[in-house]
Specification:
23% of the residues lie in helices and 32% in strands. By secondary structure, the chain is an alpha+beta fold. It is globular and about 45 Å long.
Amino acid sequence: MPLRPLIATLSVTAALSVAAFAGVSPMPTPNLAFAQATSAAEIAPPPPLAAENSYLTNTETATFRGTIADFRAFGEENPVTDFVAVTDSIPPIVNITVLSGTWPEVGAVRRVDLEGGYHVHERVLENSANRFAYQLWDITAPSGRVVDHIMGSFDYTQTGDQVRVEWNYNIKPNLFLARPAIRRYLRRDFGPFMEAGLTGQVAAYQR
């Protein structure tokens, strides 16, 4: 499932709501227009990936009957974002623009525009038969102040006629004090959001 506006796109929106993590009133988010890059050369380079223990992680899994190839092909036309409900803390995507490479080939970069005039950049880290991994950075929403980057992956395991898909979503804070609040957010907000998207997509595939 080389996942067009899907995986990372979702992940993006989660990072954007870090302002609500601490359980306090989020900062107002005026509808501002940010300057937007039109090529990868115009954006800041992605931060280096970090050691595993630097991230705060949420994992959701689902199992279904079928093959990895068929499910990923289904996901091309029916991305995870089709099966989740946008909330106040997870703003909708309004546009996606590929800035370099051919999506979803490794190294391709795209900009994901979100409601409110914000954006995030995303690149493909890996796209193999059993794995799709991506990185998100340059988050312009207020929440981006406490997020260094996000690294996510979809991993697929075939056992007989059953496939297990595992979605890992990893946030690297750039502020140590933000870790408890981000951890709560992953557990209470984005975790259920991920679960609904993944189980909804699997149910649609099996219909």
